[in-house]
Amino acid sequence: MGLNGLLDIELSVPNPQELNDFWLRRGLVQTSDGVLGTVDRAVQLRIAEGSYRHMSELHLSCESEQGLADIAARIGAMGVDSTVTGTRLTCIDPVFAHRVVIDVGAQHPLSPAQQRAWNYAGDTQRTNNRAPAVVEDSLRVPRRLGHVVLATPHLDDVNAFMFEGLGVRISDQILGGAATMGRVEQDHHNLFIQPGATSSINHYAFEMDDLDAIGKAGQAVIDEYPEANVVGIGRHFIGSNVFWYLLDPAGNMFEFFTDMDQIIDGERWDREVGRRDWGSSENPLQFAVWGPKEPESFFFPADTDVIAAAREALGLR
Ligand SMILES: [Fe+2]
Fold first, then answer.
1. Neighbours of ion ligand 1 (CB under 5 A)
2. Residue 205 CA, ligand 1 centroid: distance in Å
3. pLDDT tens, 14-44?
4. How many CA atoms does the CB half-sphere of 1 hold within 13 Å?
């Protein structure tokens, strides 16, 4: 009866046209003014004008009207007012101050990626042909918005709202709960809360078909903006996803990812594998299984002070 989908987000930035055009060049589709989608999902990214870069709306789906009522009751008990109109709940996130919109709806499956033959050792799947990634003319485009990572100094309040109030299901925590990864779909994480100097978006992430799709799409970005590279390609410990992190023209970090852990049985994940306290002596925390080490800017963006000042000017904590 709870949350079942990450539908889309709205990003507000000082130059929305520049960001819109950037994503059109990455293969997103303009579905209406300021709205970008993918082949499978007409709305994934909405882009608006704002005095500083931030996520201004989080749009989720929920299985039933009863689920909406339950969420309204839980967040109401925390002092967060919400409005339920028909099959939609709206409220304001008590820390980040973005709009939270939850619609009753079913999950939208993604059409399967076109598989590329890969010559594994002892299992040759492609003979007498060059690799598809070599001969394909066009880039594989982003398939869906997969997750959003938010940073804040107010972890207790955000975690209470997100995981207890909205009911995002916890998949893993690190450093004794300092960072929490949760899901509303079956991806290991659709929402990830981590410590930060000010409340801001750390990154948003698009799922890609495979490793070559990440490599070629990421390469196209740094061909345009060499300074856009942040860290990649590598494979994370937590969530297992292969990643490449880059900057969009507004200064938001985004990720192209593939091969994330999928959790369809939360009890089984918790019991057999997950919710380890990564960062403890038994499970030392590292950014990646393999790949470059993350730069300091991954956790401390260069414009943190700008965002903090903008939020202070708006009376936001
Ligand atoms: Fe990510």
1. 205, 255
2. 6
3. 999 999 999 999 999 999 999 999 999 999 9
4. 7
Class of domain 3-108+142-313 (CATH, top level): alpha beta
Q: In 38-81, where do the E strands start and end?
A: 45-49, 54-62
CA of 106 to the centre of ligand 1 (A): 24
Smallest Cα–Cα separation from 46: which of 54, 189, 37, 38?
A: 37
- d(CA 65, ligand 1 centre) in Å: 30
Residue that wins the pLDDT comparison between 278 and 128: 128
Distance 315 CA to ligand 1 centre (A): 29
Q: Which residues pair with 151 in a beta bridge?
A: 194, 200
End-to-end CA distance of the chain, in Å? 32
CA of 206 to the centre of ligand 1 (A): 9
**Which residues are 61's β-sheet partners?**
5, 103
Q: How much is the mean pLDDT over the chain?
A: 94
Determine the distance separating the centroid of ligand 1 and the alpha carbon of 259, expressed in angstroms.
12
- For position 175, what pLDDT does the model report? 74
Do 42 and 110 contact (CB within 8 A), yes or no? no
Q: How far apart are CA 293 and CA 170, in angstroms?
A: 26
